[in-house]
Amino acid sequence: MTLETTRPETLAIHGGSWRADPVTGAVAVPIYQSTSFQFQDTAHADRLFGLEEIGHIYTRVSNPTQEALETRLAALEGGAAALVVASGQAASAFSVLNLAEAGDNVVVSTDLYGGTWNLFAATLKRFGIEARFVDPADPENFRGASDERTKAYYAETLPNPKLQVFPIREVAEIGRRLGIPLIVDNTAAPLTVRPLEHGAAVVVYSATKYLGGHGTTIGGAIIDGGNFPWEEHAARFPQLNAPDPSYQNRIWVELARPLGPIAYVLRIRTTLLRDIGTALTPFAAFQFIQGLETLPLRIAQHNHNAVKVADFLSDHPKVERVIFPGLQGGEAGRRATTYLQGGFGALVGFELKDGREAGRRFIDALRLFYHVANIGDVRSLAIHPSSTTHSQLTAEEQFAAGVTPGYVRLSIGIEHPDDILADLRQALE
Ligand code: PLP
Q1: Does ligand 1 come within 6 angstroms of the Cβ of 116?
Q2: Which domains does the chain have, with CATH numbers?
């Protein structure tokens, strides 16, 4: 069944290729806990390996439970195709490794999750891929750092701890003029921001957060917007435009043509995932399908509660300042209202007035909030970023990134807002 709708409430439940199990009629997507899938005959095996026919071979590369999740995610995001992998980190790494090799560079926003910062600044650097970090406050910084070896721009929509929305359209347009795709990590704002509509070429997620939503499962996703003209930039992207010796000397843009504009994500599946093997288990894929079905409802409640928390903290005498997209003025405020729909996300940062250790003392006094290194759970969560997500930075770098001793980051859950506020009130007292 092809759905005509673009409404997320419906797509979260019906979007993608799944309708029911063709043999048993099961409606909920089963956990296809099988490593491999039987070929009809040797000719069928040849067709599957040659991508003349699409079908499942081996669960490291594809599986029916993963496929139901992937097609639903692509439908929800408005993309051409998706790939799910074992973690958000694997998704970020593959999104870049699919385009960049030793000697290449990527222009990267300085406003990043600490784990992604490490991926670029340490691990990809050792692979010979240079990350050129630029301040996203001025989109022109991306143009200034680009050259003919620049293979992608990389940024987060709603990065911690500044919580200033990334100028997606502005940077995507610069990239499109130069032939450089924008990859956006939309982990913190699914449905609230739709990066592909603003010109991003690829969206990545830590599905661990809002997509799963219940704090049970680690996973990641890459969504191919199908909107970047790889063939027009053949010299920059030989990976997609030149014969691939690891795949029968086939050319990915040509191989993908009968399947749709999905060369980018098809290559990740059939080369990087095949060779490196960070596959999502069918059980984990099932968990994310369950999560997705209530995503629109949860996001609405997360966003609603976060506005109440930001307002409450803004009026509290012990709070120095609140960091929340809905409260920003100037250019940051303009971007927040341009890009965010139906709310401002559910991450709230704030700075306590009172002394050096106030942030830690506040967190230790919370009762309903959990103190964990996570976001996007149905439960409300709190953390002092210097202890974890920004621990790779020196004290001065943390201060420059907005992580001061009085700083607290909250990930607002979907409990009743009055109970969330009551816990904040008692901890502040
Ligand atoms: N991107 C962002 C914005 C994150 O917050 C995280 C995890 O905290 C990741 C990526 C990495 O995801 P995972 O923990 O699923 O590997």
Answers
A1: yes
A2: 8-291 (3.40.640.10), 295-428 (3.90.1150.10)
